[in-house]
Amino acid sequence: MSSAETALPALATTLSKADFLTDYRLAWESRHASLAGRKEVFMGKAKFGIFGDGKEVPQLAMARAFQNGDFRAGYYRDQTFMVAIGQLTWEQYFAQLYANPDPEAEPATAGRAMNGHFATRMLDEDGNLRDLTQTKNSSADISPTGGQMPRLLGLAYASKLFRQNPELHQFPQLSNNGNEVAFGTIGNASTSEGMFFEALNAAGVLQVPMLMSVWDDHYGISVPAEYQTTKQSISAILMGLQREGEGEPGFEIYVVRGWDYAALMDTYQRAAAVCREQHVPVLIHVTELTQPQGHSTSGSHERYKSKDRLSWEEAHDCLHKLREWLLAEGHATELELDDIEKTAAATIKAARTAAWTAFFDPIKAERDEAVALLDKLVADHGTENTMRELVEQLKANPTPIRADIVRTLRRALRQVRHEKRSAGRRAIQSHLEQLLAENADRYNSNLFSQSELAVGNIEEVPATFAPGATQVDGREVLQACFDANFQRDPTIFAIGEDVGKIGDVNQAFAGLQEKFGELRITDTGIRECTIVGQGIGAALRGLRPITEIQYLDYLLYAIQILSDDLACLQYRTKGGQKAPLIVRTRGHRLEGIWHSGSPMQMILGSIRGMHVCVPRNMTQAAGFYNTLLRSDEPALVIEPLNGYRLKETIPSNVGEFTLPLGRPEVLQTGTDVTVVTYGSMCRIVLDAARQLAEVGILVEVIDVQTLLPFDTDHLIADSLRKTNRVVFADEDVPGGATAFMLQHVLDEQGAYRFLDSQPRCLAAQPHRPAYSSDGDYFSKPNVEDVFDTVYELMSETAPEKFPEIY
Fold it and tell me: For the Transketolase-like pyrimidine-binding domain, which residue ranges apply (predicted)?
């Protein structure tokens, strides 16, 4: 069914009076929570607030259609929904507003995300997935509007795989035969984002159970719908997605007013049934919503809404309309509803008080402990300095934060730096170290997995080679690796442009779709952002996707979602969720501006929380895939684009051997200069090293193999102890990954003290590489560049032995 207005309130008549009054209570609790939250911000007890007022009633309807095993990917106004499905308490709601870093008090983000960013803890204490079919699940929200859409697509796509692939039926803790619906929510203005349209198109193509709700209150902050959406109606412009009949491709589209309780209940039940049973995507356009407090605590909507609009919003507030409906239908009396509203206010007041106490009392206790230690320090050293003033300021602060405590301790220690190390000083030092460690756990931990499946815990298995094994094209090594892994683990699948039928543009999947089927190795449209999102959502649900970006240059289409969603997922949930997605791509040397990129600086700065593997050949790449497919962490693997037809030997254990991440490999030993590089540059550097040896310069060539993590055992520093000179070389822009490597080696590893010469960085030109072989030669470092850079270092040291060339 699709309609311009859903009319038959069938479901509402099946609910009991108790159901109606429960919904009314939850709606008013949510409203009072929004009102109280705004006041807490203005009182200085919270930094910022954004709330779900005006959206309460449609969220109650959505919650009644949401079942165990279902998933949500929403945005920051869904507080009513989260409470209604039992995955948020009002005390937790306020704990997040106050940024309580205790995951027991604030399980969604442990205080790391501002309020309204909801998530359920899908992992147990050991980092393993819980039984996702027995709970109502919410993937972790992100602030970039529209950013939930790619992940939503993947959550729905997983249901399709679980239903249609019999091999996955052995994992009942992950899915109930694919019956799970992925519920998405978004504001009307954010439907202008490209990710929204891309995800909807992909859902229609894939025919997955994705139920998308658009909360339409006519504005995007201060910008009204006429500036946002053609025809001012997202459902009107998407009617071309509407399927022509049951069994036909496309969407079901419903339009329903956000204050019409009965119609909302009916619409969501009908829509969820279609979605769940038929695996048909659904769009519900919820219109005529209001936003009583405006967008957020950053401003007032009276500045941009007319008096007529404000008057209309008052009359069409969904809570007022729900009250009118309950009274008109005889489901409640005025007295009953008044009592519910008063009780709801009291409930929120109690939750707010309890949350503030749970948040602030531990900080006060920490302050008091610090003050006691500081008083002892003052007694030991007197009051000639400003320490007493520091202590008094901390004592007098009515609402100290942990930074105030640590700041005071650090400044106090400055004051006594010339004094004898007394017992009081040692106690302060010890206490400061303890607080710094505790706060590192609160605010800096869980960037990577803490489980037994973390990359560092995967057993290293060396590659073995049969005697006399013949060499093959590099692509065949990858093909054999993927073949073995797909046989080993039925949860692994691969998607991407041209991955399926032709086996990817470089043939590493050649023949594997025919062998394993289209559900395991699948072609996609040209849509890099949602290819990655498809993988993120599926990985959240326990599958092991490999998503391919055809060329590294096109990673820019997906870098935002990799950065904002995938890379920080374990961090922003403090270990509550994980998505071990592998993004496979190829880059570095080939031809032209958009097919030979090496934008490593962009990648390294954007996706901390993912591993970045930069293998020099396909055997190394296979070893990384074997490691990553056994771990539970996300990674980007950048294969060398010009290496698929170079000859390599297939390991006899091609699907089992593993490579550790973060361990460089010495490709050639030397005593004069260390050259650090990776990827396609390895062959160029090795060629230059051979030529340098002819003139008496012995170069140690090191392939870092992975940039994240980077040289965890400080092998490069050990090399510099011997050579005392270093060149960092790659194909990124100047100051890119070469500077990244230099900082790690000289700063973090402290290898500057071993140098007798200035460290050198050899990078590409500061522009995209030009087309043709000449374009490559003059755009990127070549053999002669490497030779000359190393030779110049030696010429500075021994000019008589190595006279200037030019």
Answer: 472-646
Flag whether pLDDT at 385 surpasses 90: no
Give the dihedral of Cα atoms 744, 748, 752, 753; nearest 10 deg: -150
Q: What is the mean pLDDT of residues 727-751?
A: 97
Q: Count each helix (H run) and each strand (E run) in the chain, helices first.
A: 26, 22
Confirm whether 32 is a catalytic residue: no
- pLDDT number for residue 344: 98
Taking residue 728's Cβ as centre, other Cβ atoms within 10 Å add up to 26
Q: What is the pLDDT of residue 387?
A: 82
Give the per-residue pLDDT at 805.
Answer: 93
- Helix, strand, coil percent values for the chain (each to nearest 5): 45, 10, 40
CB contact set of 71 (below 8 Å; sequence gap of 6+): 137, 138, 139, 155, 180, 181, 182, 183, 537, 540, 541
DSSP SS3 for 408: helix
DSSP string, 314-332: HHT-HHHHHHHHHHHTTS-
Class of residue 269 by CB neighbours under 10 A (exposed 0-12, middle 13-18, buried 19+): middle
H or E, element range at 212: strand 210-215
| 648 and 474 Cβ atoms separated by less than 8 Å | yes
| C-alpha atoms less than 13 angstroms from C-alpha of 409 in its C-beta half-sphere | 26
Cα–Cα distance, 372 to 747 (Å, whole number)? 38
- Give the helix ranges, DSSP H, for 510-617: 512-516, 528-540, 556-561, 569-572, 600-606
Assign 544 to helix, strand or coil: strand
CB contact at 8 A, 262 and 8: no
At 36, the pLDDT band (50, 70, 90 cuts) reads very high
The active-site residue out of 218, 595, 611, 744 is 595
Q: Is the pLDDT of residue 511 over 60?
A: yes
The residues near 339 (Cβ < 8 Å, ≥ 6 apart) are: none
Q: Is the pLDDT of residue 667 over 70?
A: yes
The residue among 73, 56, 55 whose CA lies nearest residue 219 is: 55
For 554, the token pair is: 């096109």
Residues with Cβ < 8 Å from 525, sequence gap 6 or more?
A: 201, 202, 205, 497
Q: Which of 769, 763, 770 is nearest to 786 (CA)?
A: 763
Cis peptide upstream of residue 709 (ω within 30 degrees of 0): yes
441-472 pLDDT, tens per residue?
999 999 999 999 999 999 999 999 999 888 99
Asked if residue 8 has pLDDT above 60, the reply is: no
What values do phi and psi take at 620, rounded to 5?
Answer: -60, -45
Q: Of the candidates 633, 683, 642, 639, which has an alpha carbon nearest to the alpha carbon of residue 661?
A: 633
Q: Which of 114-123, 302-311, 374-383 has the highest mean pLDDT?
A: 114-123
Backbone phi, psi, residue 700, to 5°:
-95, 120
**CA dihedral over 401, 404, 407, 409, signed as positive or negative:** negative
Distance (Å) of CA 226 to CA 192, 310, 658: 12, 18, 56
Residue with tokens 């490691």: 627
SS3 137: strand
Given this model, what pLDDT does residue 294 score?
Answer: 87
Q: In degrees rounded to 5, what are phi and psi of residue 214?
A: -110, 115
Of all residues in the chain, what percent carry a pLDDT higher than 70? 98
Burial classification of residue 333, based on how many CB atoms lie within 10 Å of its CB (0-12 exposed, 13-18 middle, 19 or more buried): exposed
Rg of the chain over all Cα atoms, to the nearest angstrom: 30
Amino acid at 282: V
pLDDT class of 386 with cuts at 50, 70, 90: confident
